[in-house]
Amino acid sequence: MGLPVVLLSHRAPVSFRREGGERTARRGAGGLVTALVGLAGQLDDAVWVAAASTEEDIAVSREHQGEDIPLVMDATPRIATAEEAEQGSGTPCLGIRLVDVEAKAHEDFYAVVANPLLWFVQHGLYGLSTAPVLGQREREAFEEGYVRVNEQFAEAVISEVQSRNGHALVMLHDYHFYLVAERVREKCPDAVITHFVHIPWPGPDAWRVLPKDMRERLLNGLLGNDVVAFHTERFARNFLLCAQELLGLTVDLAAMTVRVGGRVVSARTYPISIDVESLEELAQSPAVRERADRMEAQLCGEGRQFLLRVDRTDPSKNIVRGFLAFGLLLEQHPELIGKVTFLAFLQPSRLDVQEYIDYVGQIGAVVARINAKYTREGHGPIDLRLQEDFATAVAAYTVCDVLMVNSIADGMNLVAKEAVAVSRRDAVLALSESTGAYEELGAFAVTLHPFDVQQQADALYAALTMSEEERRGLSSAAARVVRENDVKKWLDVQLADVRALLEP
Ligand code: G6P
């Protein structure tokens, strides 16, 4: 791809820290970073714009005076030497530009508007007891935080595009930046602009929670793109229905386009995936195998089984109802008490947002209740670990019996794809019908209905008591789907579509 690429996401692909006087760079976890870092290897000229999120990020960004920072992106990323940046080092080199956002504006942007407001609206959490109230604080935070921060990032993107003579592919990501495309288009009319929304896009009624002017500004901002992309057809269709119902625009649901003035904006579907090869490498590394063997010895065999979940502590993940369903399972099938362990790796998330702090408290309370009721001979049925440890989570993927994903709503859910790709014991996926992943993997999973705890308990029972043959059939079919549609395909299809868009 000859065209330079300017990427934008809130989280950077690396974050810098100072450890023992030394500056270190850590590669960000998560599907998006893995997927997009892969791009760097394929492109001659790519820059990634993101927020400076640590003290050391800010120091690095000041040293480079807001200019691009050349990075060598291998297993342990580092800033490239001047020579490497000039000549290329054989390993993929990627420029990053870290934007230092003023603290109050960032808090309004991140902790009041993006999460929880937009996140809650888009995941159908608005109106539940954990949901925020939309008031003066939110309106102010929208203007002073969301709009301002979007302007600041748009300026950074514009300067990157302009330094490439105005010709670039701009790839914007997620709900933090719905107002960026419109501004970039104004200043850089020759750029091709795409925006990937990684979270669900609900239909018009859900958006009516937001004041009219706010939802119209968000939609109009996104319509500054050439392509708005989603993980499922349903989200893409909902987006067009919003343009039709909330803005009165003419949409073509067969062609999946909407007319905006003289332009046509396309809504496209590209289901994101994982880097199967590198996940398999990690799963087979001695350290991960050793952990997996230990877990297997402790939790499997002799009639024992283990159920796993791996999530951020996010209300959209439906963790509390998942534990309630597990409690019901033990109540209704007492023969499973002492035999089934529920291992829950929960990574504390967004603890600068009150709703998320409250949610961790609710999780703790329900786990304590169930463990108090069903602990036998020192064996508590739920092993809750509030930690971020990807290697241990991968070890657990390889040996668990059942992986539970019961999200209320989820753009994709890569945990489901990761677990089936590396399972060595034919793990059964118990998967919410409200995840993007369900569209690809639902046929090879036990379905969970996120609000129905009895149904979830029954489905977990079915998964745990399934015959070996049936398990193998489902697990291998799911793994095949993931292997055949890995993250490289996700990128290739998008780049091919952009090329088609550029053809006269
Ligand atoms: C989701 C979003 C990402 C976000 C991630 C972690 O996957 O789609 O944009 O970065 O959650 O959330 P955080 O608030 O920690 O960045």
From TrEMBL:
Superkingdom: Bacteria
Gene3D superfamilies in UniProt: Glycogen Phosphorylase B (3.40.50.2000)
Pfam families linked to this entry: Glyco_transf_20
InterPro entries named among the record's database cross-references: Glyco_trans_20
Family: Belongs to the glycosyltransferase 20 family.
Record protein name field: Trehalose-6-phosphate synthase
